[in-house]
């Protein structure tokens, strides 16, 4: 991934929890823990229609992500970027893939009746790895 240091890509491919910060309508920060993934060019997260992340990113695409390796918490990956796409296409398959990776369950067991999943693609603009 071009903007992500190669030595940090494992944080996007393991079971590491990410904290995603978005901007509420009143300008205050909103942070949510999420499962995280990547496609080589963008960071991928998954949410559902109507959730705060989806509403915030639809209005203001700015996002900040922090991922800490539980085995080495002094080497965090931090990413600033923008949500460049929010789509239903591929979102159901993606949440099932994340569920298999993170909790070894497929399909995703926490789906609510009528829930519509959203795949969010985030273009990294700045990334840093480590405490420096």
Characterization of this structure:
- The relative contact order is 0.24.
- The protein has helices spanning about 10-15, 50-60, 90-105, and strands spanning about 20-25, 30-35, 35-40, 45-50, 60-70, 70-85, 115-130.
- It is an alpha+beta fold and about 130 residues long.
Topology (elements, then pairings):
Elements: H1 10-13, E1 18-23, E2 29-34, E3 37-38, E4 43-48, H2 52-59, E5 62-69, E6 72-87, H3 91-103, E7 117-129
Q: Biggest sheet: strands side by side, in what order?
A: 2-1-5-6-7-4-3
Beta-strand residue percentage: 35-45%
> Which runs of at least 5 residues are low in confidence (pLDDT < 50)?
none
Look at the helices and sheets and give the structural class. alpha+beta
Number of strands: 7
As a whole number of angstroms, the C-alpha radius of gyration is: 14 Å
Helix content: 10-25%
| Tally of contiguous helical segments | 3
Q: What is the average of the pLDDT values?
A: 95
Label the overall shape.
globular
N-end to C-end Cα span: 20 Å
Biggest pleated-sheet summary: 7 strands, antiparallel
Order of helices and strands: HEEEEHEEHE
Concise account of the structure shown:
By secondary structure, the chain is of the alpha+beta class. It contains three helices and seven strands.
């Amino acid at each position: 991934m071009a903007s992500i240091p190669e030595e940090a890509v494992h944080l996007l491919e393991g079971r590491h929890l990410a904290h995603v910060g978005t901007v509420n309508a009143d300008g205050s920060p909103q942070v949510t823990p999420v499962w995280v993934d990547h496609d080589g060019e963008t960071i991928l997260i998954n949410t559902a229609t109507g959730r705060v992340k989806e509403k915030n990113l639809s209005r203001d695409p700015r996002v900040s992500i922090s991922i800490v390796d539980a085995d080495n918490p002094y080497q965090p990956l931090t990413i600033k970027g923008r949500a460049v796409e929010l789509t239903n296409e591929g979102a159901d398959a993606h949440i099932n893939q994340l569920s298999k990776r993170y909790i070894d369950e497929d399909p995703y067991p926490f789906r609510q009746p009528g829930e519509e999943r959203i795949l969010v693609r985030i273009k990294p603009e700045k990334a840093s790895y480590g405490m420096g």
